[in-house]
Amino acid sequence: MPVECSMADPLTIFPPEIILRILDFSSVSTLASLLAVSKAWHHFIDVTHQQAIYGAESKTTQPPGGTRDLAFLSDTSSISKFYDGTSTWKDLCKRQTLLARNWAARHPVSQESVLQIGNDPVWRFRADFKRRFFISTSHAGGLNVTDMDSGRILWRLPSTHDRDEDAVRPHAHLEYQDGMAIFDREGDAVEVWQAELDGAARGEFRRIAILNHNCQTRGFQLSYGTLCVVSSEGQGFVYDVTKRPPVLTTHLDIEPGAVGHLDQCEDAVIYSIGAKGYYAYDKKSGGLLGILQPSSCTEKYHIRSLPLGPLPSPNDPEHVRHGEDEWGAGMLDGALFVGFSRAGRVFVSPDWRKALCDPSSLATSSFLLECESDGSSFDLGGWLSVRDHRLLFEIEDRIYVVALDSDNGIQDLDHPEHGSFSILTGAAPQLAVPVSYMTLCDDAIMTTYTTLGWRQSISNAPGSNPTPRHETPARIFPTKAIRVVSLAPEISSSTPTAVCQSGSPITKARSGPGQPTDQMWQSQAALLQLVSLLGDEPEEWEDQDAVEDDDEHHA
Length: 555
Hints:
Elements: H1 10-13, H2 16-24, H3 28-35, H4 39-48, H5 50-54, H6 89-104, E1 111-115, E2 122-128, E3 133-138, E4 143-147, E5 153-157, E6 174-177, E7 180-185, E8 189-195, E9 205-212, E10 217-223, E11 226-231, E12 235-240, E13 247-253, E14 262-264, E15 268-272, E16 278-282, E17 288-292, E18 299-302, E19 327-333, E20 336-341, E21 345-349, H7 352-357, H8 359-365, E22 367-370, E23 384-387, E24 390-395, E25 398-403, E26 421-424, E27 438-440, E28 444-454, E29 476-486, H9 518-522, H10 524-534
Parallel strand pairs: 18-22
Antiparallel strand pairs: 1-29, 2-3, 3-4, 4-5, 6-7, 7-8, 8-9, 10-11, 11-12, 12-13, 14-15, 15-16, 16-17, 19-20, 20-21, 21-22, 23-24, 24-25, 25-26, 27-28, 28-29
């Protein structure tokens, strides 16, 4: 005779403290299943203990040691205002879960916006999500502050061609953090400007310092309240920018030959020294912490030609035959360090501090990603972004988003949990030029983007606004704009509205602020043919080969 086995409801036999502890280790999908078990479970989770359950760090991503409220959401980097209106921890959990699932998908839901800023190609740009504006420099010089939502220019500085004392040089590198903008000027100096001082209007900046150096300034990077500057002549500088004006705190003697790329964390700064690898220094003492040499890596993977898939080991272990490869952009994200070379190789060190102390650890735990290019036909080693176990880099006319596992290693090659994909860097191959800035945000990928622009009438006076397009003659020309690929899903539904295909461009786009209507873009193919027949006009598109130190000022 069969024996019936019944299990008592845990709600009836365990105290709430025990159940809450168990739920702390349960996944969000498990919570969803429990809600459907009974009214008692639904009431326990969604009514009595909702804040304790969904507010746990195991269910929502939040700053460590926070104040246990939702105030930190005001500092998120969301282009779509994805967290606006979040009122409960459960609501936050839902939004974060939907967003994480979309990022992890092989074919994520996506929408594209393109923003043309003035008539000159964008060189560098940064986004201020709190103040809702972009700040950018251009190929031709000048600086623009543009409303993130309307595309209206709020304030601007002229180009050096205008011979103004506040002019900004062509191809100026730009750093930005919470209202502070820093860009380089002629003569190995950098200017420091602060937004909205002394009753200034939204988006208006005022200069607070000029930092001069007696050596060739090759690059600088701003974060953690400090500005780090590097010279190729074996010198580094660390400034405390919380002081007004900024104060030099450390003058470093570093390895000569820095190429201009650098990044920092709270206590260390890492400089790229080209073929020699990456040198790490203590920001306070100036002492050398160690060297990250990518050539020591023994583990290598290869990114296949499109469509982009898992990353197999290369058939040819000597895939990259580029002589002495030069390492360029390098970026920190917690324990992770990633570097990018001119031969199109990506160096990944999941625990860079351990690798500095133990070279054998670097050889065994770090790895290289090798790509389909040797850099001979395209200027590689440039921009890079690293965030939330993802790498963003450019190979010829495509930007790759490569997902790592939770330990920042290569995912299971046969069953990857998170999707990797790629997007095009321009509207057409005829327009492709290197990306001059790219970044990963909470809910978007933002890059410069080569496309066709429309002539606008813009005054050179600081603080002026452009004349509306319909009041000026329309004229088409190739340019570089800001492209935003939003991965924010619909909150009310998980049904895709647009799809970013693995290994293919965005399939649905919407016009961004300041851009032509959808009908205008439908004729872009014919316009591109016309441009290719006419050729580029020198005053409208500068030859990339003429750019001095093209990628030398990257941070």
